[in-house]
Amino acid sequence: MTSAGSTDVVARLRAAGCVFAEDEARLLTAAAAETGVPLESLVARRVAGSPLEHLLGWAEFHGLRVAVSPGVFVPRQRTAFLVDLAVELIRDRTGHPVVVDLCCGSGALGLAAARAAADAGRAITLAAADIDPVAVACARRNLTPLGAPVYEGDLFEPLPEELRGCVDVLLCNTPYVPSEMIARMPPEARDHEPRTALDGGPDGLDVFRRVAADAAEWLAPGGHLLVESSEDQAPIALGVLAEHGLAGRVAESDEHYATVVIGTRPR
User: Fold this and answer.
1) CB 208 within 8 A of CB 174
2) Of 171, 173, 202, 253, which one is least surrounded by beta carbons within 10 A?
3) Pick the residue with more confidence: 131 or 35?
């Protein structure tokens, strides 16, 4: 692309509200060269509001390139904090830890946890599940190379029975945006990501409550459930965990602007 063409792309992206227009122009240009999709088509779709990651076919998450398909939830950078916490807990488990990525979307959390655990010298047994068939297909692209199965179904329902009572770390990035707030979300998310991955019900905790109700049956003794929430939701979430026999605590990261609620099954 000529310098003049590059300048034009940057200007169009900046006019559309893209804060990192120069970086996006470079990434879109590289994607056009790699895929053969005309750059003009990619830029037009980006200006119209398509998420950059859907156009590139991947998202950067926890130092990895994670395949992301159109119609699939794009992993948020703040969720790297949840993965970091999970890896710490994996290190503390004995034997060969079992990790499940529930509501997995692209499988980014499971992929990142497996890679980080391997870097720390710990191999894990990983499985994932999601209710959305588009997400399941995408997660299989990311997780099949690791030998990790991805199941399609509602929460715990599709998981094999042999995992019941054996999960050491349960990653569950449940939707937690209150229903009335969906309309205020950026169009990239509101219009291009599945509602099931965003809408958490009236207070944002509907799906979390369903997970918490059954988590103790699937966790191993001393096993942990990790769920992202807002800071305001965390005290309510702790009460829900206590109702279902899980010891709860809250971890927060100023660096990632993230809040994670952790529930632990008593030993």
Assistant:
1) yes
2) 202
3) 131
CA-to-CA separations, 199 to 48, 131, 171, 231, 246, in angstroms, rounded: 23, 14, 18, 17, 24
- C-alpha 267/C-alpha 265 separation (Å) is 6
Q: How far apart are CA 100 and CA 122, in angstroms?
A: 15
One-letter amino acid identity for 134? V
Longest dimension (CA), the chain: 65
> Pairing state of beta strands 258-264 and 167-172?
unpaired
Q: Name the 3-class secondary structure at 41.
A: helix
Closest-CA residue to 57 (of 32, 82, 26) = 32
Q: What is the pLDDT of residues 174-222, one digit of tens each?
A: 999 999 999 998 888 888 988 999 999 999 999 999 999 999 999 999 9
- Dist. CA 80–CA 83, nearest whole Å: 5
Residues 6+ positions from 1 with CB-CB distance below 8 Å:
9, 29, 39
Contact present, 122 and 90 (Cβ < 8 Å): yes
Name the residue with tokens 């790297």: 80
